[in-house]
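Explain the record.
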Amino acid sequence: MSAESLEDLRKQKQKLKSQLDEVEKRISVALGKTLVRCRKPECGRGWEIRELTYIQTHWYEQPSGCTGGDIWREGEGNWKCPTCETMHRLYNKPEIEKLKHLFRQTVKAYD
């Protein structure tokens, strides 16, 4: 019975990691094709999230007391329909919110 060398095991591990990385990339590509639809009846166009800009909103919290500083808090995500420019809130779409890293780009909006 031959024993595997440590080097053989490391090579096998690296090969499996490479295969896993490739599968994860393919999963990201597939998730990037997730469709969202414009809710405006006159438009109704569907878009893959990889084509859209994720708009991360922020809201301002004033200082409180002597030690509390002012701060910008992260709010909900939005996207704007490229066709009709209707803004869409994602506050009730957690399945899309968790894919925000797959949008074409992310911009920050401060109210």
